[in-house]
Every structure is written in C-alpha cells, then in structure tokens.
Amino acid sequence: MATGKFKSLLPWLIGVVVIAGGVYGLVKLGGGTSSSTSALLLDAAAADDWVRGTAGSGVVLIEFSDLQCPACKSYEPLVSQLTEDYGDRITFIYRHFPLRTTHPNAEAAARAAEAAGKQGKFWEMHDLLFDKQEEWSRGNVNQLFESYAQSLSLNLEQYRRDIADQAVIDRIESHYQSGLAARVSGTPTFFLNGTKISNPRSYDDFKAKIEAALKNPVQSTATDQEIHLHADLRVVVDGAAIDFSQDTYQSTKAHELNPEVHFHDGNGKVFHVHAAGVTLNDLLTSFGMDLSRDCLKLNSGESRCATGEKKLRLYVNGTESTEAGEYVIKDLDRILIFYGAPTTAAVDGELTAVSNDACIYSEKCPERGKPPTEDCVGGLGTDCE
Q1: Measured between alpha carbons, how far is 224 from 274 in angstroms, rounded to an integer?
Q2: 362 touches 230 (CB < 8 A)
Q3: What are the tens digits of pLDDT across the range 311-368?
C-alpha cells in the first residue's frame, strides 16, 4: 500500500517527473549503439552488480540512472519504497547511464559512488548524492564529494585512488554501453524482467507493474557457471590465524560444503564464489562459523564476542566495515576478521598479512603468473562437467 508520504507527494511527483523527465532526464543521445562492450543481462544480476533485494528472485527491476538527473532523483523515493515493501521478493539493480553532455557532473558522481562501493558503501553514497543533488550539481564536485566520503567515514586516501582507478571508469562505461545496446536513450529507464517499461506515474502504478510481474516471474538466464569470483580471507582470533586449508573447511567431491562459495584444492587463503549476491556468512556458515556485529561463532561452537578490551572487527580492502556477515563478496576483495585487542600495530600487521592472491585466480594480474590447475569440485567450477 502506498504510504501517506507518497500520496501527498503524488501531484508534485507527477509534475516533476513529466517536466524534469522531459527536459532533463529524457534528453536524446546522438549516435548509435556500441558493439565494443557485451551487453549486461537485462533479466538477471551480473556478478558485480549493485543489488538490493535477493539476486536470484523471479522479478528483476533494473534502472539505468544518472545521479545528476532530476527525474532520477524524483523516482528514488519510489524505488526505495518498492525495495523496502517487497524485500527479497524482487531484485533491484542499479546501473550507471551518465548523460555527460547534459549533466557534466554525472560521470564524476558515478565514480564517487563506485569508489565508495569499493569500501562497502555504494548505497550510502548513492543515497547521499541524490539527497544533495542540487548542492553538487553547481558546486566544486571534487571538494564536495570528498566531504561526503568523509561523512561516510571512508578512507580518503583509498577513495582518492579509487575514484581515479581505470577499473572504476571502465565499469561505468560498461554500464553505459550496455544501456546503449539495450536502446536506452535517457534517464531514468527501467527494465522489468528484461522488458523496457514506460516510466510509472506514481507509486501505485509502479506497484501494479511489480505485482503483475510476480504472477509471471522470469527464469533467470544467468547460471552459476557464468560467475567465478575470488577473494582473500584471513580470520585472526586472539593473535592466531585460522588455518582454512584444513579438511574441515575445504570443499571436495566427497565433502561438498556450499556450491556457491567455498575453499577448495587445499588453498586456505583464496575462496571461490559461483553466484551473485553471496555474503560472507554464506561462506562461514558452510563450515559452522557465523559473524555478527558483536560475536564470531567458531566451528567448535564457541563464540568470541566483543567485551572490554577485546573487539570484533571486519575489514574489507583495508577499511573497517559494519556489515558483518551480511557483507556481499566482490571480486578481488581482501577480507580480515579480527578478534582481540585492536591496537594499531596489531591491526596493521594483520591487514598486511591478508594474502593478495585472488587476482591470480581471477586472472586480473597476469604479470604474477597463471592460476594453478585446480580439480573441479562437484560440478562447481566453470570447467566441470
């Protein structure tokens, strides 16, 4: 049911969407589609998509959006309410489509969101950029975006590196080219279960489209074999690192743990991900562990909880994260779970000790050599029959 907030917002929203959408967001782009980038799926989440809801649901809503677009900002509260109301029943995917000529700061905003995402705060930056759109659309974006990053407690040195990272630039361009290939010509543009829909004129209109899709859910064209990510993990409890190369933590043909995420072939540093939306707890619970914000459950059944001088902390790519076991794994993540007295020396030492081998397995650092030949585990690997 539409909330009172949206009912009272409706007359304004229709006016803004029609006017802003026509004048700002739905500006036509020149040129044809590009064949240089393979189009992302329009009815399923890619491995590194930004997703709200459940990645494998039968209803997939994809938005191609521009963070400087007023019409996109107008739709943001509706989309947020949909994801809140429908929860795991739908998959919402955000993809960048910066209208660079019309919105000169849109590209920089997309890069700021992606840089925040590398520290686990894409959605927080996404929401903040829409909230403060008028401010940064006319201001010094670099200075403002850094202030936003600081307000989100991001590591500013890493943020500055990431915002200029070619991988971030390429990711945004991949989204953009995929949109062109799907004949996206303006923002916002929505695809529901692979079909482009006319922009809804109200929350109730949007909800009706979702309800209709729920009655005819899509069968995803993505398969587990199309996803093969890798990440490095180190777990330290009172100064001792857990050895994940032990048999109890390893997935084998005879001892299969979780088909979507696992260690295997005796490697206890790099784990493998074969599905979108996989969380850290999906891995940990497969061998009897669990991570909450306050406690780490070990596979012995014992728990180590934050108390007194002992703290429990999660670090992703060198930055502390509050997502605990709900953190969604990204390719090449370097993850540290630390329990103990978090002195600067102790934490820095353990962060340095996290392996950096995932890029070898994902073949993203060829200068370091090729990944070792691995046995397929129960049909889980990309080459298993």
Answers
A1: 5
A2: yes
A3: 999 999 999 998 899 898 988 999 999 999 999 999 999 999 999 999 888 887 878 8
Average pLDDT over residues 66-90: 93
Pairing of strands 290-291, 295-297: antiparallel
* Pairing outcome for strands 295-297 and 303-305: antiparallel
Supply 340's token pair. Answer: 């103990």
189, pLDDT greater than 50? yes
pLDDT in the model for residue 274: 83
Beta carbons within 8 Å of 28's beta carbon, 6+ residues apart:
185, 186
Report how far residue 376's alpha carbon sits from residue 229's, in angstroms, rounded to the nearest whole number.
15
Asked if residue 75 lies in contact with residue 94, where contact means CB atoms within 8 angstroms, the answer is: no
Residue pair 301/330 in contact (Cβ under 8 Å)? The answer is no
> Domains, the chain, ranges and CATH?
4-214 (3.40.30.10), 224-368 (2.170.130.30)
The answer to whether 258 and 378 are in contact (CB under 8 A) is no
* DSSP string computed for 143-183: HHHHHHHHHTT--HHHHHHHHT-HHHHHHHHHHHHHHHHTT
Residue 5's closest CA among 113, 114, 106, 78? 78
Give the whole-number percent of the chain exceeding pLDDT 90. 58
Contacts of 259 (CB under 8 A, 6+ apart): 224, 274, 378, 379, 380
pLDDT(85) > 60: yes
The H or E element spanning position 214 is helix 203-214
From residue 316, give the alpha-carbon distance in Å to each of 94, 109, 232, 264, 337.
Answer: 22, 23, 10, 22, 9
